[in-house]
Amino acid sequence: MSDGAKAGPVVLTGALLVTQDARRRVVRGDLRIEGGRFTHVGPDAPRTGAEVVDATVFAAVPGFVNTHGHVAMSLLRGIADERDLSGFLKTLFAVDARRVEKDVEVGAAAGIAEMLLGGTTSFLDLYYHEDAVARAVDRLGIRGFLGWAVLDPELTTQKGPPLDNARAFIGRWKDHPRVTPLAAPQGVYVCSKETWLGARALAEETRTLCHFHLAETRREVHAHEAKTGKRPVMWLDEIGFLGPGMIGAHGVWLTRREIEILGTRGVGVAHCPSSNLKLAVGGVCPVVELQGAGVRVGIGTDSVASNNSLSMLREMHVAGLLQKHHRWDPGALPAQTLLDMATIEGAHLLGRSQDLGSLEVGKRADFSLFRLDHPTLVPARPEAIVSHLAYSAEGGAIDSVYVDGECVVRGRTLTRASWEEIRRDAEREADPLWKARPPGASAPGTEPPR
Fold first, then answer.
1. I need a surface site. Which of 22, 275, 348, 354 has the fewest CB within 10 A?
2. Strand 37-42 versus strand 26-34 pairing type
3. Is residue 427 one of the residues assigned to a domain?
4. Measured distance CA(404)–CA(142) in Å, rounded
5. Does pTM surpass 0.85?
6. 294 φ, ψ (degrees, to nearest 5)
7. How far is it, in rounded angstroms, from Cα 293 to Cα 291?
8. Burial class (CB in 10 A: 0-12, 13-18, 19+), 331
9. Can you give the residue range of the structural domain that contains 230?
10. The domain that contains 110 carries what CATH number?
């Protein structure tokens, strides 16, 4: 049980509620929180037995859901800038070989702190040493959906078969209230048919999600087509892998037929615009077409090695501008759709829309309080707040963040850990990794094996 679930009732009064409910209401009202859930959303919340907090200067916004990342790579921010994808990956290959569980946990803590301070309350991760990430999740109070990287045994540096490691990880953490463990096949470039189907079987057996990289680069797609005669989505469908509860990251190089397959199979997509632009993958995720085919699309930051930020506010902004520019259509991905992708649609991708993604009675109390007097939210009008969140708001506008009803950020300060200690640890553990950085050069590949 979380600390928020153990705490007494709290009533926040007079906030501007950006509910993200079915009607997408934006209203002045109160939030009552008991047992980690909302028990009242709207005017005149009962105050009996509750701590009452005046929230009239705040907008209450559902916690952001970051649907793709590698949070432990926070120690590698800026380590491979201005390199083409081959040079970028050569750097990561070299540095990744030096990583140990201790620095993974330190890096995860730094990344989680950044996300919490930016209003993200849930994130979907893909990495190895996920036990270390889970410990950081437990310590700082965020909600983590943690995918153990799975690839062919002969291609990994992990100790033991990656699929067995994923199974054991799921067993260790499946009962944690804020950790959802899962298997995460790395991608078609390091996973055989047997590995893909093994990951699917594990997900079905343990009733967990399955997360993977998909059609991120043209090289990835063409190499797989040359090897198998099929594009990745077509091949994954042919072998019987695709299905509900699966989230593909990137989805840049997709054909119309592949989009239709994803929609038919119930596969979700995590759109990572900043990472795609920075690495110059040469394409644009067909978000509008995906949504038109019934594919749920969330927003992901990817890692700070390729973004270089974990800000979902920034990612919403970039996602909107990219689609408008690419399609010559200022109405493409409007502000409300962008906020949906960062909240309720992300919750749908994670299979948790019944209790995350909006401010509604019965849902988990995961939300942020934005200061309405912050320069990036002025004029603070109800009819403009969604636009402000999508196009102008900065992280400095976020005052407090709640997960499971527990205030994990108050007055822009972490409540469960000291940022100064996290920062010092991160600087120390980053030193040997940065010393392992090779000079820029080209090397074949797509994503570094885990």
1. 22
2. antiparallel
3. no
4. 9
5. yes
6. 85, 10
7. 5
8. exposed
9. 64-349
10. 3.20.20.140
